[in-house]
Specification:
The protein has 122 residues and is mostly beta strands. The protein is 0% helix and 49% strand. It has no helices and 11 strands. The strands form 2 sheets. Strands 2, 4, 5, 6, 9, 10 and 11 form a 7-stranded mixed beta sheet that branches.
Length: 122
């Protein structure tokens, strides 16, 4: 059974960077596409990006596609989300989720991590 654990969140100043990790156990993460979602206080969960099994990815946040990008490390069974030039609007709980094919619909995913908090504040 695939299990996902996110890490790497925290408090960062505006303009700073964070690198989130989504580490899998119980299965080979290379067999899955992995999406990142985020949920800000009082808002619904929105798609950030999804990286396919071959490494290509799609950005769902068009306004942030140049500064928030995923990548994956097969040796570590981990997918990352590199976030640069962070603003207060990026404050949210970030989740990773896995399925065979990418989808921006949260209801399509059966495997979720517990989330990691990202707070952008001075």
């Amino acid at each position: 059974q695939l299990q996902l654990v996110e890490s790497g969140g925290g408090l960062v100043q505006p303009g700073g960077s964070l690198r989130l990790s989504c580490t899998a156990s119980g299965a080979n993460l290379d067999d899955y596409s992995v999406a990142w979602f985020r949920q800000a206080p009082g808002k619904g969960r929105e798609g950030v990006s999804c990286i396919r099994r071959g490494g290509l990815y799609t950005s769902y946040l068009l306004s942030a596609q140049d500064r928030i990008t995923p990548d994956r490390d097969s040796a570590k069974n981990t997918v990352y989300l590199q976030m640069n030039s962070l603003t207060s609007e990026d404050t949210a709980v970030y989740y990773c989720a896995a399925r065979l094919y990418c989808s921006r619909n949260v209801n399509d995913y059966d495997h979720w991590g517990q989330g990691t908090q990202v707070t952008v504040s001075s």
